[in-house]
Design brief:
seven-stranded antiparallel beta sheet, about 160 residues, about 25% helix, 7 strands, alpha+beta, globular
């Protein structure tokens, strides 16, 4: 089983301030179309194929893998991506929260397995190392906030 986590401040020093509502809007937009929010070239297709009041279903090509995800929303707080098909199974969570000092934080965490591979085998260990490293999901969080700020500056958020 893969468990990875990364947390970054939403408003680091020197960056334009984002409110919780603005950061939340960015997360919702990312759930609907990841192409703009992930590092360039990582997501090449992202289509919402089903929508209800409680969730959306999207089909995407991310890092060359074809995925189908069921995405649920806890407004202003959490977006959960359930991996229905693709190389991974499990859940990826993006969560907004305040730390002990009241500063807004964005956390990624996941509980995943790799389909067709032995639990805790070399493939899962390599995947966990990548996810936990600076080029893994931390870079996706940084890219998400960068794009959210750009959309806000353009008046598109």
């Amino acid at each position: 089983m893969i468990y990875a986590s990364a947390t970054i401040p939403v408003n680091p020093e020197g960056e334009p301030h984002l409110t919780r509502e603005q950061a939340w809007k960015g997360l919702v937009l990312k759930a609907r179309d990841a192409r703009l929010f992930l590092p360039p070239g990582l997501c090449t297709r992202c289509d919402v194929v089903e929508e209800s009041a409680s969730h959306i279903v999207r089909e995407a090509t991310i890092a060359g893998a074809e995925l189908r995800e069921i995405i649920t929303f806890e407004p202003q707080r959490k977006v959960t991506f359930f991996q229905a098909t693709g190389p991974r199974e499990g859940a990826i969570i993006n969560e907004l929260f305040e730390d002990a000092d009241g500063a807004l934080q964005l956390r990624f965490y996941c509980y995943l397995g790799l389909r067709g591979h032995a639990p805790n085998g070399p493939e899962e260990r390599a995947e966990q190392e990548w996810m936990s490293g600076d080029k893994g999901y931390k870079s996706a969080l940084l890219s998400t906030l960068k794009q959210t700020r750009e959309l806000l500056a353009e008046g598109r958020l």
